[in-house]
């Protein structure tokens, strides 16, 4: 089994050490194993989970919802339908954000075209 130091996990995930500690403290990340010297050692499963957390965080999912998702995941397969519902709701919010950005991008591109027309 591969194990990772906190520094390696920071490098791999882009999360800071403080964020990793915070996620562990609030229960978003399961308690991290430690070596004989008491130093944290992350598993490949921990790193994989953090990849999912990164995706959810980067798409704007609130921590409370990420915690709910984590709880359901740990509860087992009987929560799959609930996890799907939570992710679908989040996906709809992300799609709305993307559409909003597309509309703003059109306005920016129109302004660019305008400025090109007055300088050219």
* Share of helix, binned: over 70%
Task: Give me the side-by-side strand order of the main sheet.
Answer: 1-3-2
Q: State the end-to-end CA separation.
A: 63 Å
Continuous helix count: 5
Structural class: mainly alpha
SSE arrangement, N to C: EHHEEHHH
How would the blueprint of this fold be written?
Elements: E1 3-4, H1 6-13, H2 17-26, E2 33-34, E3 40-43, H3 44-58, H4 63-75, H5 80-119
Antiparallel strand pairs: 1-3, 2-3
Helix pairs in contact: 4-5
Q: Can you put this structure into words, describing what you see?
A:
It is a single chain. This protein is mostly helical. 72% of the residues lie in helices and 7% in strands. Strands 1-3-2 form a 3-stranded antiparallel sheet. A hairpin with a 5-residue loop joins strand 2 (33-34) and strand 3. Helix 4 packs antiparallel against helix 5. The longest helix has 40 residues, at 80-119. The chain is elongated, with a radius of gyration of 20 Å.
Question: In a nutshell, what does this entry contain?
Answer:
By secondary structure, the protein is mostly helical.
Defining key terms:
120 residues; mainly alpha; three-stranded antiparallel β-sheet; 5 helices; 72% helix
